[in-house]
Specification:
single chain; 161 residues; alpha+beta; 24% strand
Length: 161
């Protein structure tokens, strides 16, 4: 017999539907309260803390980039050390609990930050676009495309199984 005793808090967490809510002082600033289907498809209880943090960071980065002009790109500042700011050029996760950021620092040096989800404190910043590019790079769009692709792959695997 496998009757597992669970608390009401655990049952609530397992049944939670991802939601997002924000409010801004400026009434002209449009709040981003949607959660894309690609994030909702896989139940929370089947996501590692790293995957869940990765997906939510993508949404924040994408929303931040949508507010930038063509002269700026997204970068991240990290709290709790001298990591400084890195221009975001890639992002990933390693189950169960690691999130990785790829990019370059203010001097152009290639940078990779590996962080445990329990240590995750990120500040998004707008940096001037690198002068060697005519248009800014938008990593948020590419990350969201990857989420959609992963969701489609999972759906096709479900149909075959």
């Amino acid at each position: 017999m496998q009757d597992e005793i669970r608390t009401s808090a655990e049952a609530y967490e397992d049944s939670a539907i991802p939601r997002r809510h924000e409010v801004h002082a400026d009434p002209e600033t449009e709040a981003c309260n949607d959660v894309p289907d690609a994030v909702r498809q896989k139940p929370l209880k089947h996501k590692s803390p790293a995957e869940w943090a990765y997906e939510r960071l993508i949404l924040y980065i994408q929303n931040f980039e949508e507010q930038l002009d063509n002269e700026h790109e997204v970068a991240m500042g990290f709290t709790g050390g001298d990591t400084g700011v890195i221009r975001i050029e890639g992002m990933g996760f390693f189950d169960p609990d690691i999130v990785t950021f790829y990019g370059s620092d203010a001097t152009g040096t290639r940078t990779q930050l590996i962080q445990h989800v329990s240590q995750l404190n990120v500040m998004l910043r707008a940096l001037p676009r690198q002068v060697d590019r005519a248009v800014p790079r938008r990593i948020g769009f590419r990350l969201a495309q990857d989420l959609d692709k992963e969701n489609e792959t999972a759906k096709s695997g479900d149909k075959q199984g």
